[in-house]
Structures are given as structure tokens and as C-alpha cells.
Amino acid sequence: MTEQYRNITKTLVFIPTFNDRELLNELTNEILSLDENYDIFVIDDGSTPEIKPMNLIERYYFYRAPFNVGLGLITNIAINFALFKKYDVLIRVDGDGQHNISSLPLLENEIRKNNADFVISNRVNQHLENSLRNSIGNLIKLILTRLCNYFSNLEVEDWHSGMMAFSKEAMTTIKSHTLDKYPETEIIFFLKYNKLKIATVDVTQQKRLFSSSTVTLFQALRHVSKVLLLILYYKFKG
Amino acid sequence: MIKLIIFIIILIFVLYLLIKGLLNFDLCGLLILLATISLILSSFDVVIMELGSILSIIYPPLAFVAIFNGLMFFTIIIISIMITESRKREHKLIEKIAEIDLLIKYPQN
Questions:
Q1: Total number of domains in chain A
Q2: Best of A42, A186, A225 to mutate (most B CBs within 10 Å, chain B)
Q3: Distance from A77 to chain B by nearest Cα, in Å?
Q4: A66-93 pLDDT, tens per residue?
Q5: Are B29 and A85 inside 8 Å of each other by CB?
Q6: How much is the pTM?
Q7: What is the CATH classification number for the domain harbouring A122?
Q8: How far apart are CA A179 and CA A113, in angstroms?
Q9: Is A225 in contact with B88 (Cβ distance < 8 A)?
Q10: Could you list the residue range(s) of the whole structural domain that residue B70 is in?
Q11: Which runs of E-coded beta strand occur in A124-233?
């Protein structure tokens, strides 16, 4: 019996960034040298001072949002661009250097070989940092993960991971949906609701070398309330 | 008991607006939070008495208070729906501007 693999010829890796500039060029070069089918799309989400694009002509795209519009809208822009340029897969990597670039083919392979429509990475070492902020954060994330899994019938270990891959089907499905700030959970719920196949891949997370997390206590509380409402929303929607 | 029923009615109404796409998650969360705080605070007589004395209400006729609160809630909901709608339009406009910008910068081969 021959296995039917999905045909992937072009992959777009998009890096959303808000004031993360130190590692951007290094990340871009690393991704471009990883695979010749990988193109890069950097979106500056209104950083101050603005991020200068690299002087690359081939396989490199750059866009600067007029002001800080948030990750949801940035993701919408990247999806529209990937569909316009006829990419088969869109992978998101954060610009802070925490994501291991060598894991990108793992996400792509889930789409190619296992016919997944959407792949979210599971950061296996995210609980290792010992600080009060991290411990509280991890506890809240654990409770939210259990709730999300229970109500969605999924087995996703990391609902808040920023490293994710969309197949063409997932991009087409999500194209008309308006994504909010911090859209990771919303994307998973939306694609599950639309009966797309969701897979996870274990990855290791690297230590943040520059800058700190942009998530404040207020934003964290807002996110918790949003996740709880998302659960209710999709529960009522069926 | 009546307070709890009012709270549940508000909750159902707000969730209905969310599902219909008239309210976004942020404002919906805020309204539920406000309703919860009101429910908790109204359970304590001390708070009600204190609030009454601050607002100089000695004997608030029930109908008047109910209508006033209802109108307040209705106004907040209407404003929330308007904010949600304008945010949606802003989102779509920025998305469209980005699409045109990128089309000009990187035309299809």
C-alpha cells in the first residue's frame, strides 16, 4: 500500500515582531539556510523605533503595520499574503529567538505526511524556569489547558504556543475570521469547530536572551477571561 | 434570589450578543465582570446603605431604580456594540490596506 503524502512545494515562515530586533537577522538567515523552499515574511507590528528590513531581494518579504495592531491582525495579514502568493504551508515563529528553528521541518512534516491541517508546537521544557511569575503562569495555563481539552475533545498540551503551522485548507478556512490579540487558543477552537485536523509536535524552547515578555498582569487576566468565554462560545455554538 | 435571576438574565443576554457577533470577547468579559461585582456587592446590606447615603437616596422607589438601572445597562450595551463594530471595521480596513501595500510591493509573478 502506498502512502499518500500532501504535496508541499512552497512554505512561508512568518515572524511577527514587536520591538524584538536583536535576533531578527540571525533568525532570518538561519531559516533561509535551513531549506531552499522556505521564504521569510517579517511583520513589524509597529515597533518604535521602526525595524529596518534586511537588504535581501529573494525569498524575503517585509511589512510594517501603521501602529501596534496586535498579533491577531498580524496573523490575518500573513494568512492573506500566503494565500495570495500561493504558499502551501504557513509557519509562525516568534521574533524573540525562543523557538528552535531546527524544529520547523517537524511541523511541516505533520502536514505533509500525517495530513494535518494545523500543527501547534508543544514546548516540552516550558515549565523548567523557577520564578514566582512563571509558577503562577504555569498553574493558570495548566488549568486552562485542562478546561480547553475537556470542552474541545482535543489533546493539546500547549494551547498558548506561538510556533504553529497552517496548511492551505486551514489558511482558507481562517481567512474570513477576524482574529483577536493573542490568537493561539482562538485559532485552535475555530479550526476544531470547522472540523479540521489538528496535530501537535514536541519542541524545545530556548531561553529568551533579549527583552522580556510583553504580557502584563492585566493582559494575562484579560486572556484568562477570553479563554473562558471562548469555551462558552464554542460550547453554545456546538 | 431576585438579584441572582437578574444576574443570570444579564449573563444570558451578554452571551447571546457574543454568539451573534455583536460583542467582542473583551467587552463581553468586562460586562460579565461588572455584573458579577454588582451581584456580590448587592449581597451586602452595608454596601447598599453606604451607596444609598453617597447618592442621597433615602427611599428609592423600586420602579424608578429598576428603570434607571435598566437604562444604564442598555446604554452600556449599545456603546459596547458600537465599539465592537468600529473595531471590526478598523481591523478589516487595516487588513485591506496591508493587502494593497503588499500587492504593490510584491506583485504576483
A1: 1
A2: A225
A3: 6
A4: 999 999 999 999 999 999 999 999 999 9
A5: no
A6: 0.84
A7: 3.90.550.10
A8: 28
A9: no
A10: 2-105
A11: 164-167, 198-203
